[in-house]
Every structure is written in C-alpha cells, then in structure tokens.
Amino acid sequence: MLGAFKEWRARYKDRMDAxxxxxxxxxxxxxxxxxxxxxxQRMMLxxxxxxxxxxxxxxxxxxxVALEQFQQFMQQLMASMGGG
Length: 84
Hints:
The protein is of the alpha+beta class. Helices cover 46% and strands 13% of the residues.
C-alpha cells in the first residue's frame, strides 16, 4: 500500500500546497488547491488509505480576500441598520 500511496502523492503533487506527517506519528495532512468539491472527492476516493483513515476537509480562503469581504459585509450591514 505504501507504493500506491507514493503513486497517489505523485499524481496529485501539483495540487498540494502542503503535504506533511505528524512528527509523533499517527497520520498527517495537507493543503490541496482544487477547482471544486468533485475534484477533492476524486482525490480522496483514490487515496489508498481512505478506508482506514479519518478524513476532514475544511475549506480555507486567502486571509486578505476574507478580510476585505468581511469589511464589505460589515459596511453593508451597518448601512442597512442606518449606521456609518
């Protein structure tokens, strides 16, 4: 299975912004950059250890983009409440 894992890693390496193992053992994680949820699902379906792993996926947004969106949202919220 380790060989299949290495092949899977090579196949998706260009989509991974980070790839790591926990130093104390017991697994690892990564950050992937995919176009949509269907692509992520395909990656996870092909992951050789998927049946033996607890997999969590948390979407993240670039911090500067999120900050700008939050500021715009707050400005719209305040305007709709009659504030600043």
